[in-house]
Fold:
Amino acid sequence: MVRLLACLSHVFTVARLDWGLPLLNPVESIRKPKVTNARARRPSKEELSQVLANITNKELRLFVLLATETAMRRSELFQLRWEDVDLVRGYVYLRDTKNGEARVVVTSNAALEYFAQLIPKSEGRVFRFKHVDTPSKAFARAVKLSRTQYVGECGEKGVEPRVCHLTNLRLHDMRHEATSAFLKRGCLFQRSLQSQVIKRWLCWLDTRI
Structure:
């Protein structure tokens, strides 16, 4: 709706400035609806399994698994250093986050296993690839390939592919999945306290995803 109103407003502006028509712009007096870009997409277990199967690089696959398990942002995982990973006490210290606040991420047993597979060192970056968008590109390729395979399998079985299966799925959505998993692991606080815990854990300004 907002884009439609902007387009209509532009028509009146062009007519007045370029064509010299004595017109008022009625769109200027219309209250625009609030725009929200929040995503709530979460992968199903089946989708995640299919995507991971098509990420052949072990390091990139572990990156996605850690994003799913810890709710850490892509940039946070990319910049993560071994000096800030405590596998004994089970936490990760994030010095530089999107919101400018340092925070501690308590890791699950699964996350500790993923870190162990990366062969821990005394110092240096955890992940060796050089570009922050490398995991996103690998994830997008895996989603596309998984969707193609899924559609092919449906064709062989003579069934209609589900429109939403393996579509509109991004690496950042793993953060939503991790948040939901966090709540399912018995962290059922009162609603007000639950909101504060999530905001503190994820360093969010808003708990809406």
